[in-house]
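The protein record passed on below.

***
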Amino acid sequence: MTLENERLRSPDTPAPEEGSTAALPLAVYETLTANVADYALVATDLLGRITLWNKAAADVFGWPQDRMIGRPIADLFTPEDRAAGLAEEEMATATREGRATDNRWLLRRDGETFFARGELVPLRDAGGRQIGFLKILRDRTDEEVSRLELAASRERLQFALDASALVGTWDWILPDDIIYADARFAALYGVDEALAASGLPIETYLHGIHPEDRAHAGAAIQEALATGGDFSADYRTIGSDGTVRWLHARGRCFLNDAGRPVRFPGAVVDVTRDKLRERRQDALLRLGDEGGFGEAIDYTLKALNLLGETLEIGRVGYATVDPTETYATILGEWTAPGLTPLTGRKRIGDFGSSLVKALQAGMTVVEDVRTDPITRDGAAAWEAIGSLSMINLVVREGSRLQVILYLHHTAPRVWTEDEIGFIREVLNRAWTYSRRRLAERSLIEAETRLRLAHEAAEMGSFDYDLQTGEMVCDARCRAIFGIGDEATVTYSGTLRPQIHPEDRERVEAAARKAMEPDSDGSFDLVFRTVGGDDGGSRVVHANGRCVSSDGVPVRIVCAVRDVTDAKEAEERQTLLTRELQHRVKNTLAMVNALANQTLRRAATAQEGLAAFSARLMALSHAHDILTQTSWTSAPIEAIVSQALATHGGEDERIAWSGPDLRLTARQSLALALALHELATNAAKYGALSNETGQVRIGWQVARGEGCETIRFEWRESGGPPVVAPERKGFGSRLIEQSLAAEFGGEVVVTYDPAGLVCTIEADLQLDPEDSVLPSGLGDA
């Protein structure tokens, strides 16, 4: 609002100073005021400042002349029209066209509006020069209100005629943002009827529109307001009791001469039944559309989902009943968003002591579980799962309950006959589709099992038409013969060239024999391929049959399998068998040598048996490691760790270190036996025979002339003083001779008084040949 308007509305504002506005010539003034009492006359200068204000104007607007002279004429307009610049636009039109129609809502002194009809014309002096404007108008508020009310009444009547299911009307007075609505209209939106009759803002009714529909309903209203056209929309409302209804609303927005919306009447029709009928029909179509089910789906659960979504209820599910009819176990359930699905086993009696009896009678319909005799003593259980009304249907075998199908809603609900009929129809259709699909799926599963069996066995197949020469190969067969996915397959041009030349005649002879009249028609053979697009040669096992018609061969159907890996495995097995025989012989020879040498030098049989058992155990540990590597090589650290495991392993007294290094099988056995002898000797006479002695083992690899060399050292310390033996026993010979021979280097055993030291220095070699015993075992 401008400063001038503020002053205009205040009765305490002083009048403008004389001379502040241009005065009209006396002749003009007398012409304007003579004998004019019914029309308000307002004259202005060229800038729109009021220069003339007659008595009729003072009566209509409530302002005396002395308070209006000098004021801008725009202050008579409503705030919206002032902001839109309509006063200036009207003066420009009058100057340009000689007059401007002036039919609009204007502002009185007390702030109320009235509707005026009139014109604005230019004022000119005796010389024809424009000196201002003259506004001539009359108050026509009653006439305009009557016109609008009549139009609204006619509109409501027309809507009532157009919609036979008319349930409510509204009339929205836009300048005041007040909607006058009847009781039926208000109830649909959850609005108090008395307040609705006295008028409420539109925001009150917008809150009653379903949240999911509020946006598109609001957009339709805005479009009508912007264009002044018809309004039509379908949307849902939520009543005060939570009931959701579908409405079809129609109305029209009326604009004033300035193009501004002033009135918006209309009516609503309850189309809930029609909408629900459409949804149910759509659900039945979806249920009948077998393509919508997909494959391997629980059709019963699919039907439950459709029921829940279409009926807009809380949960739908099914449960099996135990033989005693005491418990129901939930098998599947659909729930509305926000509800927790039921699971596990439920005691039926908890939901009503007479519920089982009611279920045995067939369908059970309960509108309010808290008041129905069947369920009211179990109301607490129903409320705990968020269900206040329900329908139960059952499947019986004889007189015993088998399955319960349940439909629950979160609030009390009147289940209509249409809804119950829809439920029965859905279940009947689902049962029919399910039975047919089960039969179809049985056939599909049989084919699938056969296909999976072929895939599991990595089998392919081909079908050769002997009459036309056409050949159909599956993907596995193509892969086996190395034929591309897009290549056309014939026997002579595609398949025959892939058979190894040395096997080709044998394969064709088997096929010819299968086609002979006295043959059983089958053949089973193994042959080689030469490799196709992928360049890989394979061994193929073919098992086929010739199909005859009236004694004439017409087709050859064959299953093929790539047995290349199996053949290679068979050859490896043969090789391993021979190798195992070799290993067993060597091992037995080694054990025999150990037994002979150990027992021959033992003082007593018990001593000899104990020594033999210990050496045999050391040999066994080395074998364990070599077995893990297919007897090719073994890591040196694993040999050391296993050999010393029976002597305490790595601790504060025994420790070892060195780089990662692999030894041959013979070197591994020789080192394992030598370490056993060294550890046994240390435990009896050396560093491990007291509480303070220590053994340190280390190995290093260095670069020698043309190859790498290893230095392995066993060093004892802290034990009793060492004295060189007068006579070397079998263990000493095993250490010095066997190690030197197997490592191809030098082994030195030093009997230092501070502790025995054994060193090995040799070139590193990895020779898997171990066809002879470790040196020294067979010597006397």
Residues 1-24, 161-165, 290-297, 768-776 have pLDDT under 50 and may be disordered. The chain has 24 helices and 29 strands.
